[in-house]
Amino acid sequence: MWLQRLQDLAYDLDDLLDELATEALRRRLMMAQPTQAGNPSMFRNLIPACFSTNFSPRAVQFDFNISSEIDNITERLEDLLKQKSGLNLMSDHLGGTSSRRTGEERPPSTSLVDEYSGFYGREKDKQAILAQMCLGSESSSNRRLRVIPIVGMGGIGKTTLAQQIYNDEEVKNSFDLKAWICVSDEFDELAITERIYKQISSESCEFKDLEKVQVKLREIISKKKFLLILDDVWNEKYGKWDVLSRPFQAGAPGSTVIVTTRNVSVASIMRSVPDYYLDQLGNEKICSILAHHARGWQNFDAHPGFKETGEAIAKKCKGLPLAAKSLGGLLRTKGNPNEWKDVLDSKIWDLPTENNDILPALRLSYQHLPSHLKRLFAYCSLFPKDYEFDKHELVLLWMAEGFLRPSETHREMEDVGFQCFDELSSRSFFQCSKTGAESRFLMHDLLNDLARHVAGRVCFRLEDKTESNVQHRRDSLLKARHSSFIRHEFDGSQRFEAFSRVRKLRTFLPLPVFKTPPTWQNFYLTNQVVNDMMPQLHFLRVLSLSGYNILQLPNAIRNLKHLRYLNVSATTIEQLPESVGELHNLQTLLLRDCQSLTKLPTDTRNLINLRHLDIAGTGKLQEMPLGLCKIDSLQTLSKIVLGRGLKVNELRGLLNLRGALSITGLHNVMDAQDAREANLTCKQGLEELEMVWSSDFDHSRNEMIEKEVIELLKPSTNLRRLKVEHYGGVVFPSWLGDPSFSQLAHISLSDCRHCTSLPSLGHLPSLKKLRISGIQGVKTVGNELCGIDWPHVRDAFPSLETLEFVDMVSWEEWSTNLSEDDGNFRQMFPRLRELIIAGCPNLINISLLRLPSIIILKIMSCDAIKSSESCMCKSRA
Predict the structure, then answer these.
(1) For residue 792, is pLDDT > 60?
(2) Would you tell me the crossing angle of helices 337-345 and 304-316 to the nearest 10 degrees?
(3) Distance between CA atoms of 713 and 106, rounded to whole angstroms?
(4) Which CATH entry fits the domain spanning 117-277: 3.10.270.10, 3.40.50.300, 3.30.70.260, 3.40.50.2000?
């Protein structure tokens, strides 16, 4: 209870400091504001800053209120200090990250294996590891020491797999010496070396000096083939491993060290072969493990009274053998199926501690985290089970909550966040999504339970919408600082009644935080919540209303002066209130797929902390505030609309831009030098660029200016995606196709109807997908597409996998004019898997060389191609 009060005080103090900093920023900005004439007020210049700001009615009221709050904080702090003395509490100056200090130390493992191997379920993994060990293979002599890391989350079965390998008959016959060492928390080079020596020599070590022990160990293993298992390793310091491993180099070729660890960083300093990642077991195997440890059965098939509940409990284990074994142990004395249901309905921290190793095993990973990573992990308790979250999305939330700080190396907060995310991922707290999306992740169900356990009452997940459930959880919610909930088709005020009493709430987060939901129009949030409740939550730092069918935000949103993150993506909102421009602390403003949005706040001068503005998918947005491009902290600006006063050269000051940028309205650029001043070449963080002119090719268009503009808008060579749409010039820019764009993987050239030839793109080493559509001036395609001098390079389009030609109405012929007998012949399209030609009515002849990798070939709406003789595409397809 004392710690909870201390935690509440820490949050309140943090809010107080933020309030002071925000007011100081407001006063500075007010002093810097010009008058209507455009110059600072002459009268204001005659008054010292302390008088002109501190004696306004608003400032006087603020100072009075803040003084009262400071007195209250001080009184609470003094009271806690008195209670601390009375409870005899002492600070742990060691930091508390070691498992030995928390009582969560894992029991040591041994090499003995469970003889009941029928439910083991790791035979494929075992064979894969044995294959890496190259037992009996001549290739093993090529490597003096092989280090194989087995990596996976706690309880996944790493130790069990290592035991199976250690006791395998073929392994026993392949090594002269073997040793099993459970390392666990303390990586003491001397102690570990002594234990290895004792196991291999069967003698106690009489030396207590690392140098002497290592010399003796080296003598014993010299020219002998040995197997060493280092189980449960946590050490991330390469120097310690380097010292420990020095005697191992004396072993015979084929000597192997197998390391089990939860941390990829540990594996990276030790491995000599790629890590072996251990996945969860299938549910059928988990059922077998549970049935064996609970009742001694092979499965539940012959026991219908237990089958449904037993299989449900097995699903709860989510492929974790330790969970199945531990729950089986708890169920061993419970012969009634109803008692099994109690276990099914329990949280892992509510289960009896007897024979329950799940929470201690998982908490061990948590206890080894540095303190700054602990709260980042606990915050993820806001996500429901099986929720697939986006890496970038989570980092923005962490940043808004104040969990991230710029590093001493002056790295951006986002980079610090990505490093923290990668570290949690490397420690098996996050898992990559099975969908294949690189930035999508999820948490194992039991780790999700652990996050909720360690977060305590600070994070609250509103999972039920009925009033009775809200009433039942009101006590928990009253002290909550962060809240999330699953969005319903209609969310009325009754569901959020308890929130009206939570004045210190920092996070209001509907889930999923999607970007392009297919049915976003079907979710409704009552206006009472938006207009009445929201403005009363003065301490909100994260506010998301994404996906709701809401038309507007109230002007009272200016009251949310702590707000850092505002997400109204995929809503029906038409314009933002001008008061949004008063949110001085706002870092992230997400408006993606607001298809009705027509206007942003006109005055954005005070949004000096804005770092991310996502307005992609806002087709009706035709103008942007003039001062927006003066916010030099901007990193994300997904779209800029030129015209009505906003010029492309205003991009010059946005040196920190990252990710994707769409420049629309390029037909409004009248002076090509504005494009030069935009200085896109220096924006190294830009990875995706879209250049869009008007689709109306009228007489106002100037082909020469457009040609010069696109030439001067040369982006950084870090570009990965490029789209050019409605360009009106005759030729494409000279930089398009330059091999220095070595990371460019996707190109789309659309409706550039006046161009008479295609750019030379064959030299781009990473280009995987190329789409060319609506280029009406092209009649023939020849070697120029591959590059004028392409026969003198090894391959043309070496990485291209997909090639599309669409709506090329004037196109008549595609020919390389080369044969395989030509002495200058080089491979063309060596990896092309899919070729699509559609809507090219005048195309008569396709004469290409062999396409060795083609799988899909589609030729549609190309009426001029009458027979196979006119389509000489020599391929295996």
Answers:
(1) no
(2) 10
(3) 59
(4) 3.40.50.300
Token output for 865? 């191609």
Tens of pLDDT, residues 410-449: 788 999 999 999 999 999 899 988 776 788 999 999 999 9
358: left (phi over 0), alpha (psi -120 to 50) or beta: alpha
Q: Which of 158, 118, 468, 417 is nearest to 293 (CA)?
A: 118
Q: 570-574, 810-814, 817-821: lowest mean pLDDT where? A: 817-821
Question: 120 is written with which tokens?
Answer: 């083991």
Sheet with 769-773: strands ordered across: 639-641, 659-664, 686-692, 721-725, 746-750, 769-773, 802-806, 834-838, 856-860
Collapse the DSSP code of 566 into the 3-class scheme (helix H, G, I; strand E, B; otherwise coil) and give the result. strand
Kindly report, residue by residue over 706-735, the tens digit of the pLDDT: 999 999 999 999 999 999 999 999 999 999
Helix, strand, or coil (residue 748): strand
Count CA within 13 A, CB hemisphere, residue 695: 3
CA 175 to chain centre: 43
Q: For the chain, what are the domain ranges?
A: 2-86, 117-277, 283-360, 369-462
- Sheet with 565-567, strands from edge to edge, namely 459-462, 482-486, 507-511, 542-544, 565-567, 588-590, 612-614, 636-637
Task: Quote helix, strand, coil % in the chain, to nearest 5.
Answer: 40, 15, 45
pLDDT in tens, 491-546: 888 888 777 777 799 999 999 876 554 455 578 888 888 988 888 889 999 999 99
**3-state DSSP of 269-287:** CCCCCCCEECCCCCHHHHH
Given the DSSP bridges, would you call strands 845-851 and 431-432 parallel, antiparallel or unpaired?
unpaired
* Verdict on whether the full-model pTM lies above 0.85: yes
d(CA 438, CA 97): 31
Q: What CATH class is the domain 369-462? A: mainly alpha
The pLDDT value given to residue 613: 96
C-alpha torsion 413→419→422→426, nearest 10: -150
DSSP class of residue 476? H
Cis upstream peptide for 830 (omega within 30°): no
